């Protein structure tokens, strides 16, 4: 069925006729103009399908919706259907068939405009029949509903995001209609109390109040009174009785959202959030505080309480034994004057005064190590942490200090410095870490590689990085799950791995892990030696590229193609999947070389390879076969489809002249794989097809497979 353009004889919808001289009365012209303008504004066009004349007429608005020009588009019914989205064509054809059987024609579907855009339209129509029940014509409209569909989809997504956010946050929504004494709860309000989601969600105020814990009623009632008296918003925490008889802590928020003409509240709205876990955590924290008080008396570390001016108020047994004095004699002494060496006294007192004046809250934020002097004059190193104790007004009243004697550890660190000096001079990266990958040491080579601050970490302080920060996820998982266990069993473990450099790129390395089992209570440690092998890998990559990539065109070479084709042959034989091979050749390439020179010829081959590579599918393989010949593997494709793909390549090359030599053409031969044949058989048939294309005048496509009339007359497609 033909679709005619909206010429001057079609009226506003292609139905009406006009006098042959084109004359029309002004009222008709005005009315039609207004109707056309109305169609344009409403994005609704009209159409008529005349079954007697076998034509379809469109109004101008239909052409606009479909993105077509009335004077440049002539098509059959099949061409019209080609404008319908492929996934919708079956539904559209079914709707047309149903309309011809007497049903109403009303369908929404997508169309493909020539500019590549997809629009959504709604078509409505009705078939008129003659007295014998034969269809005469079908009249209808087409409405562009793309914008409305997008708005509906956006609204749906927004509603979905809100529901997902509500589910993730697990909050309920309530609404209180004061005049009607109705409190509405959504499903989440009931769920957090253990009820079924479909529990009736309307309560009276008395019913609601009966669910509140008796100890919380006074606060809740007061909050309601304040809210109804004019406060904008409120927040209150209270308990509800659950379905199982227990109590759930809830944080209620709300505000008045509607007032009557006299300014009296009429409706409130708000949310419920289950805070039972938070309340349980607060209770556990309180119990932990009580346990901490008992811990002070039995702790294996030094515990001191310093009051105003640094006077000792409390010292535990470990403190007394370390200081070589008893508890009675130590209380009341000035800590800084009696037990801190003079060199460190000023700094320590300044830190203490800062804590007592709210300037800092915790000394352990600066991780302080300092020496003390015992009553016998011995110098001991202590690692200190401290917490400010506050009175009921929140003002500092004392500092609780906790100290660990690290004197022996410092001696051990000094012995290790000799080894560290050797490691610092090593060109390879050396790290020491714990079983979780936290780094406790890194030599200068590592610090320089990652642009980390120069110098070693302070004694006892880990570097501010871990192996997880320095290696990609796949590499660190292998180190933690394979390397560490293997090193514990055999003493060491070696592997090719990778690290992330300062620019965020992966660098290949050779990595050795050595285990240091714990001794004398020490923690388990691992050392890792990392050697950069990126230069070696680049050499290997270049060798691989030279072996499998064509140096002139930068696409795979013949060796690589044969390897891929062999695998595809095996796959096709095993699973019965079809595939085709395409062999192509540059027409008159020798003449081009003779005329412009070999250097220009090479440029043409390179540019041709890039254009051909752009034409292939992601699953296809394109390679240079030799000289000016190229070959392509097309998986999962039959001969006719392969010929179409080859024709597309041919047109692309023909239609885009080359910068230096102008127009270049190619000839292509296509062969489909036939079960049982070898690689050589398949390529020979593609070569025969190429010869056929050449012998018939070049710049064309030919293809055949076993079963064709003869190799000398293969199937052929031409541009």
TrEMBL record:
The keyword Nucleotide-binding applies. Its cofactor is Mg(2+). Residues 105-157, 234-287, 366-418, 493-545 form the PAC domain. Residues 31-103 form the PAS domain. This is Diguanylate cyclase. Residues 1-28, 700-719 are annotated as: Disordered. It holds the Pfam family PAS_8. It comes from Ectothiorhodospira haloalkaliphila. SUPFAM superfamilies: Nucleotide cyclase, PYP-like sensor domain (PAS domain). It is a multi-pass membrane protein. GO terms for molecular function: nucleotide binding; transferase activity. The lineage of its organism: Bacteria, Pseudomonadati, Pseudomonadota, Gammaproteobacteria, Chromatiales. Keywords: Cell inner membrane, Cell membrane, Membrane, Nucleotide-binding, Repeat, Transferase, Transmembrane, Transmembrane helix. GO terms for cellular component: plasma membrane.
């Amino acid at each position: 069925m033909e679709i005619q353009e909206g010429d001057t004889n079609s009226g506003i919808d292609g139905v009406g006729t006009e006098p042959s001289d084109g004359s029309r009365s002004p009222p008709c012209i005005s009315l039609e103009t207004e109707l056309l303008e109305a169609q344009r504004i409403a994005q609704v066009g009209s159409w008529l399908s005349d079954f007697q004349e076998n034509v379809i007429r469109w109004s101008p608005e239909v052409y606009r919706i479909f993105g077509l020009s009335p004077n440049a588009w002539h098509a059959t019914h099949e061409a019209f259907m080609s404008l319908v989205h492929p996934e919708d064509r079956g539904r559209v054809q079914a709707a047309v068939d149903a309309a011809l059987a007497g049903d109403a024609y009303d369908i929404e579907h997508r169309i493909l405009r020539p500019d590549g855009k997809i629009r959504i339209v709604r078509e409505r129509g009705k078939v008129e029949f003659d007295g014998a029940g034969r269809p005469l014509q079908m009249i209808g409209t087409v409405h562009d509903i793309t914008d409305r569909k997008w708005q509906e989809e956006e609204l749906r997504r927004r509603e979905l995001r809100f529901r997902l956010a509500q589910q993730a946050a697990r909050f309920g929504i309530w609404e209180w209609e004061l005049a009607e004494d109705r409190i509405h709860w959504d499903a989440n309000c009931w769920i957090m109390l253990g009820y079924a989601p479909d529990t009736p969600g309307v309560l009276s105020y008395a019913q609601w109040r009966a669910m509140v814990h008796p100890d919380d009623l006074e606060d809740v009632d007061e909050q309601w009174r304040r809210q109804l008296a004019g406060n904008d918003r409120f927040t209150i925490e209270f308990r509800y009785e659950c379905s199982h008889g227990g109590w759930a802590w809830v944080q209620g928020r709300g505000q008045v959202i509607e007032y009557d003409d006299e300014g009296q509240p009429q409706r409130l709205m708000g949310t419920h959030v289950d805070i039972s876990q938070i309340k349980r955590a607060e209770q556990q924290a309180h119990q932990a505080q009580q346990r901490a008080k008992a811990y002070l008396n039995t702790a294996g570390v030094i515990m001191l309480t310093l009051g105003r001016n640094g006077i000792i108020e409390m010292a535990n047994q470990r403190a007394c034994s370390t200081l070589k004095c008893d508890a009675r004699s130590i209380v009341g002494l000035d800590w800084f004057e009696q037990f801190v060496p003079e060199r460190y006294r000023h700094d320590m007192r300044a830190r203490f005064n800062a804590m007592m004046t709210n300037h800092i809250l915790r000394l352990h934020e600066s991780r302080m190590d300092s020496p003390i002097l015992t009553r016998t004059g011995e110098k001991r190193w202590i690692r200190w942490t401290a917490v400010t104790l506050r009175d009921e007004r929140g003002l500092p009243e004392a500092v609780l200090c906790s100290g660990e004697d690290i004197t022996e550890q410092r001696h051990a660190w000094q012995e290790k410095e000799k080894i560290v000096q050797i490691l610092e001079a090593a060109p390879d990266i050396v790290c020491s870490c714990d079983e979780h990958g936290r780094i406790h040491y890194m030599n200068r080579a590592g610090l320089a590689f990652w642009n980390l601050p120069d110098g070693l970490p302070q004694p006892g302080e880990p570097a501010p990085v871990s192996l997880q920060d320095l290696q990609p996820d796949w590499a660190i998982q292998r180190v933690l799950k394979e390397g560490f266990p293997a090193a514990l069993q055999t003493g060491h473990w070696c592997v090719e791995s990778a690290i992330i450099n300062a620019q965020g790129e992966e660098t290949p390395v050779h990595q050795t892990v050595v285990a240091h089992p714990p001794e004398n209570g020490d923690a388990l440690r691992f050392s890792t030696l990392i050697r950069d092998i990126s230069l070696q890998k680049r050499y290997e990559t270049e060798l691989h590229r030279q072996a499998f990539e064509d140096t002139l065109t930068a696409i795979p070479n013949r060796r690589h193609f044969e390897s891929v084709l062999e695998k595809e042959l095996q796959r096709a034989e095993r699973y019965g999947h079809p595939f085709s091979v395409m062999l192509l050749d540059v027409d008159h390439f020798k003449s081009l070389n003779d005329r412009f020179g070999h250097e220009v010829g090479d440029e043409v081959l390179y540019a041709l390879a890039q254009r051909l590579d752009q034409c292939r599918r992601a699953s296809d393989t394109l390679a240079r076969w030799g000289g000016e010949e190229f070959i392509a593997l097309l998986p999962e494709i039959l001969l006719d489809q392969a010929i179409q793909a080859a024709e597309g390549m041919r047109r692309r090359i023909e239609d885009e002249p080359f910068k230096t030599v102008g127009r270049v053409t190619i000839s292509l031969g296509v062969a489909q794989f036939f079960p049982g044949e070898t690689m050589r058989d398949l390529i020979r048939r593609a070569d025969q097809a190429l010869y056929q294309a050449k012998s018939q005048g070049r710049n064309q496509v030919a293809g055949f497979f076993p079963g064709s009339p003869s190799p000398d007359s293969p199937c052929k497609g031409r541009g």
